């Protein structure tokens, strides 16, 4: 049994032990999501490559939530979400406890830090979300750039064990800090030389409104210590900072995000994205553009680069049920300066309950 599976009964036991002091009965909620996607892509290939043009993806997860409110005003929430299709070595996606008071929220367990929870999706998308990196998964990578979670610090820690604190919302402003002893799922060792360690994520955000619309801004700083502690090509420590901003007006929404990654190995990276969406009734349509680039070595100014444009449309069939269709065009420029062009379409069905 994975160590993550043990967290939920422990959390449930804590809630049961506190039941005598609870103002509200403990409630349990079962939820989940099912996503099925299909993609077709035309890609540039090397002479010896035979690339399949079609691919299918699915994402099935089941969640259990338990929560109660104590008579002293403190609320406690436990949450566990597991992969329902067991093709991976990881069985539990998230497992954490929230303790919420008038002074803020304390969170412990497996969950991305405050940067990911504050920014969420940096841009609006009609059908896909920040979790759906379908295009990158469908195409043959020609660079070392990471596009999954490319604009929040979740890309460095995933849902590794950690603890975070976030202030309450005060006139639209909130801030928080998260600490992960290690970005790996393994626990129980004090030998910090085994891997990168001591990940710190500090983030602040503000949300406001104006006549007819709303706006938001957020930014954060991240630091992960290297296992070697040395600035060298083999060092695996990293520093990063990011910014995100967005606004809504009527049926329109626009968003943008930027991340600067400064690893100790010298392969500095810059990522930028902008997106626009319009929705009316059950229909939504969006367009976005993403560019990411990084140095190919410490001793040269040459850079790898990925440019991606996406157009999406979605229709809401009912509560929690939607279908979507989209198109994309991607150019990958590798370390030699060779450009690899790809284009394709995607479609799918999403059900959340």
By DSSP, the count of extended strands is 16
**Which structural class do you get from the secondary structure elements?**
mainly beta
Strand content: over 45%
N to C succession of SSEs? HEEEEEHHHEEEEEEEEEEE
Instruction: Please give the largest β-sheet.
Output: 16 strands, antiparallel, barrel
End-to-end span in angstroms? 26 Å
| Mass-distribution shape | globular
Oligomerization: single chain
Rg: 21 Å
Strand order of the largest sheet: 1-2-3-4-5-6-7-8-9-10-11-12-13-14-15-16
From the structure above, extract its key features.
single chain; 353 residues; mainly beta; 16-stranded antiparallel beta barrel; 7% helix; disordered N terminus
In short:
It is built from 4 helices and 16 strands. The chain is mostly beta strands and about 350 residues long. The N terminus is likely disordered.
Report on the architecture of this protein.
The structure is a single chain. By secondary structure, this protein is mainly beta. The protein contains four helices and 16 strands. A 16-stranded antiparallel beta barrel has the order 1-2-3-4-5-6-7-8-9-10-11-12-13-14-15-16. Residues 1-20 have low confidence and may be disordered.
Itemize the secondary structure elements and their pairings.
Layout: H1 7-17, E1 27-43, E2 54-69, E3 75-83, E4 92-101, E5 104-110, H2 114-119, H3 134-138, H4 154-157, E6 161-166, E7 173-180, E8 197-210, E9 213-225, E10 238-249, E11 252-263, E12 269-280, E13 283-295, E14 303-318, E15 321-333, E16 339-352
Antiparallel strand pairs: 1-2, 1-16, 2-3, 3-4, 4-5, 5-6, 6-7, 7-8, 8-9, 9-10, 10-11, 11-12, 12-13, 13-14, 14-15, 15-16
